[in-house]
Design brief:
Layout lengths: L1 H4 L7 E10 L2 E11 L4 E5 L6 H8 L7 E6 L2 E2 L4 H5 L2 E4 L10 H11 L4 H14 L15 H14 L4 E5 L7 H18 L2 E6 L2 H7 L2 E4 L2
Parallel strand pairs: 3-8, 3-9, 6-7, 7-8
Antiparallel strand pairs: 1-2, 1-4, 4-5
Helix pairs in contact: 4-5, 4-6, 5-6, 6-7
């Protein structure tokens, strides 16, 4: 479906002539990039190729030195808070708050003023989606690495984002944990139809999750 959508819909997210410079040095240059609705775009490349920088630019955590970030065909300029609220970002580190797992999963919803009943419903569904219902009342700081990343992914998808940005979320996990979590994320993205960009240094991971694979060199 994502492949077919490319021929009939405009991109959900895109870059045009984007360049990011720091101290006079070009860190990343992307002439053109499109991510289509419902698609998972996997981006691979060696260390230092700009993968994490790409995520920062797409989330507008950094502004490009040149070029434009597009969302639904329109250039993103002002209104960055509203723009960022249309997406969620998951990093390599889970970055959980010092509270319970269920509070962490619901934290973004609370910040956005989602009513309590709806918030609780979405938290329960997201916990179940990643198989951590039994951990709901546990302190986040007692979790293993895999459990913490499951909570981070559950928090992101509880927001029901239009776009999910994933910055090497499995890089620090052991192979069995990584494999099962990739399967669960793949299932969650298929169920929700969420548009996603995954950056990774692991080609097998990219091929498992991505509808298309882009390479940064």
């Amino acid at each position: 479906p994502a492949a077919e959508a490319r021929f009939v819909t405009r991109p959900k997210l895109g870059l045009r002539g984007v360049r990011l410079e720091r101290s006079g040095r070009t860190i990343l240059a992307v002439e053109e990039l499109d991510v289509f609705p419902g698609e998972v775009l996997a981006v691979v490349g060696p260390n230092g190729s700009g993968k994490s920088t790409l995520i920062s630019l797409l989330a507008m955590l950094e502004r490009p030195s040149a070029g434009e970030v597009l969302f639904d065909g329109e250039a993103v300029r002002g209104g960055l808070l509203a723009y960022r609220r249309r997406m969620a970002v998951v990093f390599q580190e889970a970055l959980l708050l010092d509270t319970t797992v269920e509070s962490n999963v619901g934290s973004g919803l609370a910040l956005r003023g989602v009513p309590r009943a709806e918030r609780e419903r979405r938290v329960r569904r997201s916990l179940a989606r990643f198989g951590i219902e039994s951990l709901a009342r546990r302190s986040a700081h007692t979790l293993s690495g895999g459990e913490a990343q499951r909570a981070s992914l559950a928090r992101a998808l509880a927001l029901e984002p239009e776009v999910l940005l994933l910055d090497e979320p499995f890089a620090s996990l052991d192979e069995p944990t990584r494999r099962t979590l990739i399967d669960d994320l793949d299932r969650a993205l298929s169920e929700t139809g969420t548009t996603a960009v995954l950056v990774s240094h692991d080609r097998s991971e990219a091929l498992r999750l991505g509808d298309r694979v882009a390479v940064l060199i």
